[in-house]
């Protein structure tokens, strides 16, 4: 366990209230432009941009600061093809057998289908793994706390950073993702959390007509 040590909160910035209001509303305006995209361009993306977005994700808070995440950045076409092939096998089964009628009904407005060309076309697949426990050099396991909360927060920050940088992303989760450990040679303490498909949208990208819930419907002030 690390020793207890504290420093003054030197990096905190307190803004005047007018500036805070402007910052909050400008950030909202930027974030409400974000859309999940399923039509990607094959245009390459500078690796440094992805690296900085990952650094942003890694600033996320986590249970006991255990940072129980691993981001596997896939750009190799052969590996992307393997992921596409394994995913489509699962999706074919999902759409033809596994999914309940309620589930496919809930998805209808998105127009999703078992074919997933974006897994091959997009320049990056960021495969996010959560670590339920760590394994030290001598093989000792130590449990991580609040793993899904922590990895969910880091993933949200990654999506925000990618959007802020000018990239599009898709949160993609086939119902069974165990194949990702095999393809990406990840150890057994790492569980696939999500595939984040990242790149530029294609010039002809279409997005479904959807609404976000109003503030009154998502919040209660007590
Ligand atoms: N994994 C499938 C189905 C799917 C499920 C949900 I929940 C979505 O928000 C979108 C799709 C697919 O990607 O087609």
The CATH class of the domain at 38-135 and 156-200, by name, is Alpha Beta
Radius of gyration: 20 Å
Distance between the termini: 39 Å
Extract low-pLDDT stretches: none
Q: Please, could you describe this protein's structure?
A:
39% of the residues lie in helices and 16% in strands. With 222 residues, it is of the alpha+beta class. The protein contains eight helices and six strands; from the N terminus they run ααβαααβββαβαβα. The longest helix is centred in the middle third of the chain and has 22 residues, at 77-98. The protein starts with 16 loop residues before the first helix and ends with a helix. The chain has a four-stranded antiparallel sheet. A two-stranded antiparallel sheet has the order 3-4. The chain binds 3-iodo-tyrosine.
Task: List key phrases describing it.
binds 3-iodo-tyrosine; 39% helix; two-stranded antiparallel sheet; 6 strands; NADH Oxidase; alpha+beta; globular; 4-stranded antiparallel beta sheet
Task: Describe the SSE topology.
Elements: H1 17-31, H2 47-57, E1 69-74, H3 77-98, H4 101-107, H5 118-121, E2 124-131, E3 133-135, E4 141-143, H6 147-165, E5 168-172, H7 179-183, E6 190-199, H8 215-218
Antiparallel strand pairs: 1-2, 2-6, 3-4, 5-6
Helix pairs in contact: 2-6
3-iodo-tyrosine binds next to helix 3.
Can I get a quick summary?
By secondary structure, the protein is an alpha+beta fold.
């Amino acid at each position: 366990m690390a020793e207890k040590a504290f420093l003054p909160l030197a990096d905190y910035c307190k803004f005047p209230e007018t500036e805070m209001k402007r910052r909050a509303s400008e950030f909202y305006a930027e974030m409400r432009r974000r859309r999940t995209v399923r039509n990607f361009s094959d245009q390459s993306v500078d690796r440094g941009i992805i690296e900085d977005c990952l650094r942003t994700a890694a600033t996320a808070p986590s249970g006991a600061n255990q940072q129980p995440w691993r981001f596997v950045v896939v750009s190799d076409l052969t590996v992307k093809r393997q992921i596409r092939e394994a995913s489509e096998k699962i999706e074919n089964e999902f759409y033809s057998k596994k999914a309940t009628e309620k589930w496919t009904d809930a998805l209808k407005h998105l127009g999703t289908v078992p074919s997933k060309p974006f897994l091959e076309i997009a320049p990056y697949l960021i495969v996010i793994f959560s670590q339920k426990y760590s394994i030290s050099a001598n093989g000792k396991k130590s449990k991580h706390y609040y793993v899904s909360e922590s990895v969910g927060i880091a993933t949200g920050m990654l999506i925000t950073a990618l959007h802020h940088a000018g990239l599009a992303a898709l949160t993609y989760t086939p119902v069974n993702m165990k194949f990702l450990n095999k393809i990406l040679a990840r150890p057994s303490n790492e569980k696939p959390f999500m595939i984040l498909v990242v790149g530029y949208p294609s010039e002809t990208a279409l997005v479904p007509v959807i609404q976000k819930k109003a503030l009154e419907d998502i919040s209660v002030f007590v």
